[in-house]
Write a structure and sequence with these properties.
4 helices, globular, about 35% helix, alpha+beta
């Protein structure tokens, strides 16, 4: 179950995905399969080659891309979500959804 975003935010994400942009949508989330996670970030792009390259660049396995047309996306959760949102400069999403920045070692 997703919550914490507006219809406008969802539509903006969908439009960016359709324009073949790499687009991030973070929301609160409850799923019995992953009780330890309370947020998920959907990284979407309708250009599967571009989304695949983005995954590989960030050390993610592209086989986990959800190829759901017209909005293919990769779900980020947990430490990788924190790390990538931080690397991508998604400060508003980190703050708004209370996702702690990864520790710098």
């Amino acid at each position: 179950m997703a919550f914490g975003i507006s219809r406008k935010e969802l539509n903006q994400w969908k439009e960016a995905v359709e324009r073949e942009e790499i687009s991030f949508l973070t929301h609160f989330w409850l799923d019995k399969r992953f009780p330890q996670f309370h947020t998920v970030t959907k990284v979407g792009c309708s250009n599967l080659e571009r989304l695949t390259l983005w995954c590989v660049t960030h050390g993610l396995n592209p086989k986990y891309i959800h190829n759901r047309q017209p909005f293919p996306h990769f779900d980020l959760m947990g430490p990788k979500q924190q790390e990538i949102l931080h690397k991508e400069g998604m400060w508003e999403q980190l703050k708004r959804f209370r996702i702690e920045a990864p520790s710098i070692e």
